[in-house]
Amino acid sequence: MATNPVKITDTILRDAHQSLLATRMSTGDMLPVAEKLEAVGYYSLEMWGGATFDSALRFLKEDPWDRVRVLKERIPTTKFQMLLRGQNILGYRHYPDDIVEKFVELSVKAGINVFRIFDALNDIRNMEWAIKCVKKYGGEVQGAFSYTLSPVHNADVFVSLAKDLKALGADTICIKDMAALCLPYEAYTLVKRLKDEVGLPVQFHTHETGGFGMASLLKAAEAGVDIVDTAISSIGGGTAQPPTETFVAVLQGTERDTGLDLGLLSEISSHFQMVRTEHLARFESGLTTADIRVLLYQIPGGMLSNLVNQLREQGALNRYEEVLQELPRVRADLGYPPLVTPTSQMVGTQAVMNVLMGERYKIIPQEIKDYCLGMYGRPPAEIDPDVLKKAIGDQEPLTGRPADYLEPGWEKAAAEIGDLAESEEDIMSYACFPREAREFLELRRAGKLVPIEEPRIFPAVAKGAAASAPAPAVLAPSQPARSVPEYSLWKVSSRVQGTR
Questions:
Q1: 158-192 pLDDT, tens digit each
Q2: How far apart are CA 96 and CA 74, in angstroms?
Q3: Which of 52, 42, 135, 51 is nearest to 80 (CA)?
Q4: What is the mean pLDDT of residues 222-227?
Q5: d(CA 182, CA 216)
Q6: How does DSSP assign 270-305, residue by residue?
Q7: CA–CA distance from 6 to each of 74, 108, 117, 258, 464 (Å)?
């Protein structure tokens, strides 16, 4: 009989399809099994945040706020959980404090219960305001640190970060192993230390990319972990989380038995298998086997597939292995940032440029320059002095909290979007993703959107075509590439002049 059951957060509605299917699952794909998801007895459903907001507007032509409300009507008691990138909210840059607070307020009103808050650099300063806002509006704070391996990252560092998060008001602590680097015995040691030395419930998030994710979950369970992330098997494993049913089955009859019904989970899995096969097969990541290179290069699975696409677009797929070897060098040059959004994209892009240009740092993207200026926060270690010089010249990096250099943004966003916005949620969508939100709101005004309850059906891929080929957006004639936001919120000062 279970005396200490492990609780489960299922990521099927967020990270699972973000990791495997380019975040293309629509609300209409989710609704047919909503009541079954409610009946399972999960600790929570991770169903929002990360890339889901952007993808809903950009590709699915859905209002992301409506997704929360529509699902909440059918899943009223199970906690809804989201991934919040601290001061980055859902985007790829810092937002001012007034935008962060309003986002949290609106999210709680919409139905989000648990906020997993992290920062790409594990810079607590970039998490503090979001934590305060979630506490203010009655949400549950899960303070997360990005697990990574480097000469400056170890268990002592992570335990210290967890203590800082507890001091800020975190209700639970999450080990966010986004790159699938936490081996089983390291998971055991870290979970045990967090339980013994921090004294908050611990949740463990990992991926199955390297093939040892399930073993790491089991060792975490032995060490006393309270909650783990899994993904229903039909959209689990690989670069997503270990499969829910397998974890449930392995613990049956033990003191850590989850108590979840395998029959019900099987029914849910069957539905999502149909969705994956009939609607979303063209978005497969292409990574179908365990890839132990996550340990050699510390690259998240989603980042690997993105690199393949970048090189394919440049006609340079033959340079893939060179880029893989360059990635850890760039990461070391930049002070060992954890490879998670947005730093994974930044490091990956710089590595590609270094290889294709034939000269390291011949071209440095603006985002890397901003990083070197301290606009993303404090790097875990010192940036290589030569790289720093190439990136920012004689400019002095910022020493304060990056958001302190931002002008308030709410009123500006409201003025810019004007009467296209019919609610505060519309204004927030625009503040986060100006181009995508404006296009969505224009389509809505023109009456060209399909109801959110209907699945988005994507054209079938021709036989023999690449499964990862980009698909056209629903109801959108074209999709421009991601661009710099339409307005800048950085204060212009002598220290940051010309940097954004």
A1: 999 999 999 999 999 999 999 999 999 999 999 99
A2: 34
A3: 42
A4: 98
A5: 7
A6: HHHHHHHHHTSGGG--S--S--THHHHH---HHHHH
A7: 25, 26, 22, 5, 43
The secondary structure of residue 217, as a DSSP letter, is H
Q: Report the distance separating Cα 341 and Cα 440, nearest Å.
A: 24
Among the listed residues 153, 118, 188, the one whose alpha carbon sits nearest the alpha carbon of residue 340: 118
22-60 tens-digit pLDDT? 899 999 999 999 999 999 999 999 999 999 999 999 999
Using CA atoms, how far apart are residues 67 and 273, in angstroms rounded to an integer?
A: 21
* Closest of 47, 63, 31, 30 to residue 430, by C-alpha: 63
389 has a pLDDT exceeding 70: yes
What is this structure's pTM?
Answer: 0.90
Q: Does residue 489 surpass a pLDDT of 80?
A: no
Phi-psi region of 499 (alpha: psi -120 to 50; beta: other; left: phi over 0): alpha
The amino acid sitting at 225 is V
pLDDT score recorded for residue 294: 78
How far apart CA 378 and CA 393 sit, in angstroms, is: 18
Mapped onto helix, strand or coil, the DSSP state of residue 340 is coil
Q: What is the mean pLDDT of residues 340-348?
A: 89
One-letter identity of residue 384: D
Partners of 141 in the beta sheet? 115
Q: Which residue has the tokens 């690449």?
A: 466
**Cα distance between residue 102 and residue 23, in whole Å:** 25
Six-digit token pair at 432?
């986060």
What is the Cα 465 distance to its own chain's centre? Answer: 28
% the chain with pLDDT above 70: 89
Tokens 């966003």 belong to 413
Task: Burial-class residue 28 by CB neighbours within 10 Å (0-12, 13-18, 19+).
Answer: buried
What whole-number distance in Å separates Cα of residue 24 and Cα of residue 435? 19
